[in-house]
Amino acid sequence: MSDVPPLKALHAFDAAMRLNSFSLAAEEMNVTPGAVGQQIRKLEDWLGVALFTRHVRRVEATADGLAYAARIRPALDQITEASRSLRHQHAHSVRVVMPPSFAAKWFSRRMSRFLIAHPGTELHVGSSSEVADFGRDPVDIAIRYFSGEADHLQSILLHRGQAALFCAPEYRERIGLNQPADLMRATLLNDTLHAWWPEWLGEFAELDKNRIKAIRKIDVDLTSVAIESAIHGQGVLMAVPLLAEEDVLQGKLVPIFPQCVLAVPFGYYLVHPKNAELRGQVKLFRDWILNEAQDISI
To answer: Is 26 exposed, middle or buried (0-12, 13-18, 19+ CB in 10 A)?
Structure first.
């Protein structure tokens, strides 16, 4: 038997230990929970010890598992950092990933400013709602819409999340939206990334769960599609005001009940690995976007 453990299995084991879940580890690795379990079983067979105790609906690390994770994690972090450093040491580029709606509605109008300010840097922008894996994906820094809580990431708030309502001007007039309770007659465009309708309606329209459930609703899993649907008079949009700003200025959308804005526990955060030294170009981008974000109310 080789003295080198199965490296793919080590990756699965480390992810499962960090996240305390085979399912979450599977999401991070873009595989099935069964595949994670198979890799960990392979590692257990190689080591000759049990790393997890399996229960019906959960797994629990054994003492051997905890001790082994503590020993190998610094080495895995060192491999990741050494690989990232070597891959990028001569690069004059910045690779950033952000949610598609944020890229289209806020960042796209500003990104040329970075290239004008730093003409020697190449900027590569990816738009995805998937969580970037800094150890696996070719990404230096990311913008993520989440709670801001991640032990392994440095998270800097760009814009605190809010839930506000918008619709096309003609839709407001046609439905007669004069007070929050009038939304009983409307169609709600439920952007699943910003799904705070029950909280908003409960607080500002004082509707109970049954009346909220009775309102017509369309679920949309892309913010850009939800915004376009609202522009075309399909219903009332709930969105972070930042994303509707341009369409409001152009008269395509109007805010309704602007005094009724719900604070939510999510926001747009700039994130990068907590213990990694950022390259020069990445630091330039970080400082630039933080400066650009100063014009956003947080």
So the answer is: buried
End position of a domain, from candidates 39, 73, 88: 88
Judge whether 17 and 61 are in contact, CB under 8 Å.
yes
Last residue of a domain, one of 35, 70, 88: 88
Q: Are strands 59-61 and 187-191 parallel, antiparallel or unpaired?
A: unpaired
Q: For residue 135, tell me if it sits in a domain.
A: no
For 215, which DSSP code?
S
**What torsion do the CA atoms of 27, 28, 29, 32 make, to the nearest 10 degrees?**
-10
CA 162 to chain centre: 15
Does this model's pTM top 0.70? Answer: no
Kindly give, in sequence order, each residue whose CB lies less than 8 Å from that of residue 157, ignoring residues fewer than 6 positions away.
148, 267, 268, 269, 298
Query: In 99-227, where do the E strands start and end?
Result: 122-127, 141-146, 153-167, 187-191, 216-220
Sign of CA pseudo-dihedral 4, 277, 297, 107: negative
In 3D space, the residue among 28, 27, 266, 268 whose CA is nearest the CA of residue 144 turns out to be 268
Instruction: Name the residue range of residue 223's domain.
Output: 161-265
Which pairing describes strands 262-273 and 153-167: parallel, antiparallel, or unpaired? antiparallel
- List the pLDDT tens digit at each of the 298 positions of the chain: 567 888 889 989 998 888 888 888 888 888 898 999 999 999 999 999 999 988 877 788 899 999 999 999 888 888 888 877 766 655 688 999 999 999 999 999 899 999 999 888 889 999 887 777 787 788 899 999 999 998 889 999 999 889 999 999 999 999 999 999 999 999 999 988 888 999 999 999 999 999 999 999 999 988 999 999 999 999 999 999 999 999 999 999 999 999 999 999 999 999 999 877 888 899 999 999 999 998 775 4
Domain CATH number, residue 40: 1.10.10.10
